Every structure is written in structure tokens, then in C-alpha cells.
């Protein structure tokens, strides 16, 4: 049967957010601002450095974050957050996860109270174990909070390549009044011929996918850098999905969301391309390059590095076992040699698939795995 509420949205523009502020002019913030301009919205992009705002306005480029990609006409950048938020009907917050609390507090103080905030960073906060939406609910009490996530390399989105995302928000009873639901309004406000948003009311499921896939992508990169083949990568992606599923369900999300764009979609993308900073970081570490020398020593946002700690802290607190994330944590944060960490994972007692069956069988060659990988790898 046809979904009549969706039909209503398609035939109505009353719910559009005409004026949108995008907070953060890095790769992802600038790419999302491009989408919104192409969708016909009035967009103000906030850059914390005035010289970056000036470059975007005067050259139509953001060379540091999106080299040589022409930005659409009509995109206006400012470095005063108050100016960016004046008149905004919706706000996208697109800075790295460690800055989301501070930036959300600032935006909350400046934006009109009815304006929803959509968080576009991926991660879990250190100490509190909060997802990005949880931080925002803390930092901006009483406000509608949404998230945008999915398999989306910024460089492709900025270049107008076909891309699908999931947009979720924290409003109750969204199915009863979908035309006025913030996720649906934002989906309609930013959809273009190339950019296809899906809507969801499972923020937790959407966010767990985004946070954990970066950790698994580092693990996949490490194994590739260390010389493993595609079989090992496929195993990690699949078992990584199982870890995402277990954590999401423990947090109140659904398995279905995890198999969607923001879970499986983003996991597949990030674990299989050197366009991913997380995968590339892992690949360099796997090839024996020290943390400080990765990306030739230039600072690059690699969310999975810090999230290897925060995701496993969260999982431990909930009693969820995430062996791939634990392996990654031990390599990145506890200096465990890659071969040893991998053997620890690979030589664990054999289990059922799915793991919910809770069966453990002795590994017939656990010692050999330690001998083999422990001595073969860096
Ligand atoms: N790039 C991508 O393909 C995608 C990224 N994301 C997520 O989006 C988030 C942002 O990533 P991305 O845009 O790629 O990162 P970038 O490194 O490209 O840009 C980061 C931006 O945030 C600003 N910034 C950094 N630290 C702070 C701070 N403490 N306070 C305020 N602004 C700050 C930077 O400003 P300055 O230039 O002044 O340093 C820069 O404008 C991450 O969580 C990432 O996982 C999600 C989907 C796709
Ligand atoms: O989140 C992303 C793609 O969906 C971007 O991945 P990286 O941060 O690894 O580049």
C-alpha cells in the first residue's frame, strides 16, 4: 500500500527550511552547504577562521578542504556565528566530534529557540559516553535535535555525485505528523537530483553506525597496510557490522537501522577506500608508519582514533563485547604490536554466527595463530 504521508510531503513545500546555517567550513560542512544551495536554500556557512570565509566568498573555492572543487554561486561564508545564525530556520553543526559540545552551546545561545540543530559529526564523547545527539540534547536543552549520517565522502558530495543519507530526529510520534517532523522537513529541504535523503526516527541506530564504522575502518586499513588480502577485510566488515548491531541494540536502536545507509552503507564505504581518512590512517599504521608521521605529520581529522577508546569504553560499560574495536584500541592506544593484537582476535574461541547463540568452541590452532601472526607482523 502507498504511504500517503510521504505523498503529502512530496506535494507540499510548506515545511521547507528556506534559510539554513551550516556551522563548520571543513570538508563536510562545505559539501553540505553546497547541497543546500543546489536545493535552492539560502545558506550561510560559518568558518571559524575569517580568512577561510574570505577565500570562499572571493574565490568560490575552499582549497584546504575541497581542493579545486568549484562551490556553487550563492554560497555565503561568514566568521561571526551570530551573523550565520541570524534568521536561520535550521542549523547543521559540522565540526569534529570533540568540539560538538562547545559549538552546540554557542549555537544554542544564538539561534532562535524553535530552530532545530542537526549534528553531522560522528563519534562518542569521552567520559560521558554520549552520542553526538546526546551531547546536543545536553548542551541545547529543549531544542529539537537531529542527525545526518550515511556513506558520504565530502569530496564526492561537493562534486555533486549521487549520494544517499539518513536524517533522523528526536521528535516523538513522528509518524503521526510527518510533514512537520524536523527530519522530514530537512530531507525535503536538501534533496536534489543527486542527493537523496532518507528519514528515520532511530537516532541511536544511525549514530552508533557512524561512530563505530570509523574504528572498523582503521582496523581494515591496518590489515591492508600489513599485507592482508580482501578476505580478511570482508571478514572485518561483516563482523564489524555485527559489533555495531549489538551496541546499537544495547543502546535502544534497531537492527534494521544498522543494516541501512548509516550502518552497513557507511561501513562498506569507509572500509574500502583510500578516500577515507580513517582507512588511510590505518593503512599507514599497518605499514609501520608511526602515529605522528601519518599524513606526513599534518593534522587530519581521524575520528576513529579517539573513538577506538570511547566506543570500547561505552561497550564495556554496557557489557557488549566488541573484539574488533578492542583490537584496534589495543594497537592504537596500548601499543600492542599489530601481529599480537590480530592473533588475540583471530585465535579467540570459535563462536556461532550470529553471536547471539552464545556458543564457544575451543580454537583448534590458537597457539599456532599467535606463533604465526605474532612473529610475521610489525
Ligand atoms: N569529510 C567527510 O567526508 C565526512 C565527515 N563527516 C564528519 O564530519 C565531522 C567534521 O569532519 P570534516 O568536515 O571532514 O573535518 P575537516 O577537518 O575537513 O574540517 C573540520 C572543520 O571544523 C573546524 N574545527 C576544528 N576544530 C574545531 C573546534 N574546536 N571548534 C570549531 N571548529 C573547529 C575546522 O576549522 P579550521 O579550518 O579553522 O581548523 C574545519 O572547518 C567529523 O565528525 C566527520 O567524521 C561525516 C561525513 C563525511
Ligand atoms: O564519514 C565519512 C564517510 O561517510 C568520511 O570518512 P573519513 O572520516 O574516514 O574520511
TrEMBL record:
Residues 19-173 form the Glycerol-3-phosphate dehydrogenase NAD-dependent N-terminal domain. Coiled coil: none annotated. Sn-glycerol 3-phosphate binds at residues 122, 150, 152, 213, 266, 276-278. It catalyses: sn-glycerol 3-phosphate + NAD(+) = dihydroxyacetone phosphate + NADH + H(+); sn-glycerol 3-phosphate + NADP(+) = dihydroxyacetone phosphate + NADPH + H(+). Transmembrane segments: none annotated. Residues 202-340 form the Glycerol-3-phosphate dehydrogenase NAD-dependent C-terminal domain. This is Glycerol-3-phosphate dehydrogenase [NAD(P)+]. GO terms for molecular function: glycerol-3-phosphate dehydrogenase (NAD+) activity; glycerol-3-phosphate dehydrogenase (NADP+) activity; NAD binding. The active site is at 213 (proton acceptor). Keywords: Cytoplasm, Lipid biosynthesis, Lipid metabolism, NAD, NADP, Nucleotide-binding, Oxidoreductase, Phospholipid biosynthesis, Phospholipid metabolism. The keyword NADP applies. Pathway: Membrane lipid metabolism; glycerophospholipid metabolism. It is found in: Cytoplasm. HAMAP family: NAD_Glyc3P_dehydrog (MF_00394). The keyword Cytoplasm applies. Its EC number is 1.1.1.94. GO terms for biological process: carbohydrate metabolic process; glycerol-3-phosphate biosynthetic process; glycerol-3-phosphate catabolic process; glycerophospholipid metabolic process; phospholipid biosynthetic process. NADPH binds at residues 28, 48-49, 65, 122, 154, 277, 301, 303. Belongs to the NAD-dependent glycerol-3-phosphate dehydrogenase family. Substrate binds at residues 122, 277-278. It is an enzyme of class 1 (oxidoreductase). NAD(+) binds at residues 24-29, 154, 277. Catalyzes the reduction of the glycolytic intermediate dihydroxyacetone phosphate (DHAP) to sn-glycerol 3-phosphate (G3P), the key precursor for phospholipid synthesis.
Amino acid at each position: 500500500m502507498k504511504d500517503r504521508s510521504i505523498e503529502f510531503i512530496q506535494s507540499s513545500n510548506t515545511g521547507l527550511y528556506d534559510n539554513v546555517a551550516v556551522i563548520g567550513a571543513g570538508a563536510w560542512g562545505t559539501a553540505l552547504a553546497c547541497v543546500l544551495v543546489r536545493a535552492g536554500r539560502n545558506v550561510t556557512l560559518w568558518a571559524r577562521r575569517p580568512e577561510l570565509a574570505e577565500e570562499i566568498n572571493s574565490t568560490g573555492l575552499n582549497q584546504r578542504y575541497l581542493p579545486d572543487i568549484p562551490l556553487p554561486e550563492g554560497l555565503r561564508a561568514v566568521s561571526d556565528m551570530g551573523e550565520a545564525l541570524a534568521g536561520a530556520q535550521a542549523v547543521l553543526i559540522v565540526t569534529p566530534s570533540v568540539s560538538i559540545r562547545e559549538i552546540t552551546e554557542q549555537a544554542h545561545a544564538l539561534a532562535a529557540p524553535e530552530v532545530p540543530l542537526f549534528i553531522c559529526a560522528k563519534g562518542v564523547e569521552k567520559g560521558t559516553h554520549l552520542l553526538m545527539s546526546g551531547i546536543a540534547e545536553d548542551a541545547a536543552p529543549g531544542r529539537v535535535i537531529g542527525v545526518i549520517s550515511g556513506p558520504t565522502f565530502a569530496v564526492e558530495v561537493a562534486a555533486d555525485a549521487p549520494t544517499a543519507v539518513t536524517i533522523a530526529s528526536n521528535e516523538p510520534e513522528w509518524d503521526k505528523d510527518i510533514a512537520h517532523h524536523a527530519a522530514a522537513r530537512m530531507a525535503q529541504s536538501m534533496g536534489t537530483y543527486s542527493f537523496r535523503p532518507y528519514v528515520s526516527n532511530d537516532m541511536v541506530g544511525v549514530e552508533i553506525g557512524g561512530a563505530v564504522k570509523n574504528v572498523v575502518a582503521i582496523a581494515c586499513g591496518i590489515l591492508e597496510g600489513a599485507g592482508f588480502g580482501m578476505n580478511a577485510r570482508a571478514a572485518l566488515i561483516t563482523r564489524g557490522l555485527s559489533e555495531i548491531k549489538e551496541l546499537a541494540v544495547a543502546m535502544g536502536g534497531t537492527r534494521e537501522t544498522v543494516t541501512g545507509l548509516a550502518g552497513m552503507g557507511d561501513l562498506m564505504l569507509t572500509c574500502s577506500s583510500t578516500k577515507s581518512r580513517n582507512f588511510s590512517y590505518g593503512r599507514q599504521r599497518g605499514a609501520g608508519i608511526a602515529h605522528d608521521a601519518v599524513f606526513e605529520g599534518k593534522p587530519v581529522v581521524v575520528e576513529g582514533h579517539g573513538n577506538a577508546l570511547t566506543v570500547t569504553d561505552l561497550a564495556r560499560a554496557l557489557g557488549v563485547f566488541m573484539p574488533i574495536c578492542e583490537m584496534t584500541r589495543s594497537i592504537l592506544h596500548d601499543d600492542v604490536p599489530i601481529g599480537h593484537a590480530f592473533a588475540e582476535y583471530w585465535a579467540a574461541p570459535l563462536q556461532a554466527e550470529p553471536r547471539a547463540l552464545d556458543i564457544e568452541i575451543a580454537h583448534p590452532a590458537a597457539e599456532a595463530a599467535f606463533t604465526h601472526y605474532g612473529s610475521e607482523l610489525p
